[in-house]
Amino acid sequence: MTHFTGVLLAEVVRAGIVESVHNGHLVLINSDGSVRAAVGDVDAPMYPRSSIKSFQAAAMVRNGLSLSPKQLAVVCASHSGSTEHLAVVESILHGAGLTVADLRNSLDQPLGRAERLAWGTNPPTRLTQNCSGKHAGMLATCVVNGWDTESYLDPEHPLQIAIRQEIEGLIGESIISTTADGCGAPLFAITTRNFALGAHKFRVSTDPVHQEIVAACLAYPEMVAGAGRLTTTLMPTIPGLFMKEGAEAVELLSLADGRACIFKVSDGADRAFPAIVKAVLNAWEIAAEIEPVYIRGGGEITGEIRVSELVTQL
Known about the structure:
The chain is an alpha+beta fold and 314 residues long. The protein has a single domain, classed as 3-Layer(aba) Sandwich (Beta-lactamase), CATH 3.40.710. The chain is 38% helix and 21% strand. It has helices at 2-5, 53-62, 69-75, 83-95, 113-119, 132-145, 158-171, 192-204, 208-219, 221-224, 230-234, 273-283, 309-312; strands at residues 7-14, 17-29, 35-39, 45-46, 177-180, 186-191, 242-246, 250-254, 260-265, 294-297, 300-307. Helix 4 packs parallel to helix 6 (132-145) and helix 7 (158-171) packs across helix 8 (192-204).
């Protein structure tokens, strides 16, 4: 299936020889909404995974969810599972008269490396799973509307219907199919092109809901991801940059003027993200200090992950 393999985005080079490659699909949108570049099969179905959480959060806020900016940022997050992350998630639940026992997301240990080490041998929980903020926001939205909180993950639940409608309004097309995300929430298949157009529309929108969500994430980038992660490292250093990564190597980037990018690495590996993100920022004439992903041999640097010529020329 050609749409799965995509085109060469990045390659792993060891001592001058290409050892491995990362193919994928990428769409770059100009500030006026036109497509600057589209590589790979950008009209094939793809799962946006957690990179679409801001769209999901928009549906929640539109349906009455009222939170502080810090709380809203963690609703949009794939958080690392720090003590602060967990406290903010619990504050959302407590504000709605709920507890961790009401969460229906999957069980997991913290996502962040340091946070997982600190968690040690403790069993996985729903609170530490990286999507717990989104699920807390979903539950709080249900409480506001008097919707059932037991079945909030059912694709035909009023909340999930509202989320689907929000996504369709932003991408300008009907969703292709519905399945379950890793956390258990409904996951809607769309295309890379439409997702990128939706990311552009979100940033140029005059809708107060969209503006509130972007402002919250920009104000609290440490809530959107976590210490040491690319998203949290870059967002504070580049004015207006919004980033959100998703499982299986999906990434969203957008700027205040409407420029946007979505890319998906076909093999699901995110190790080429720093190189690809830097190339996208270079295409936008933004200089960013992003440490290369070096390849080592015997403790010495013998190569690095570099983007393909096609990506360099974006």
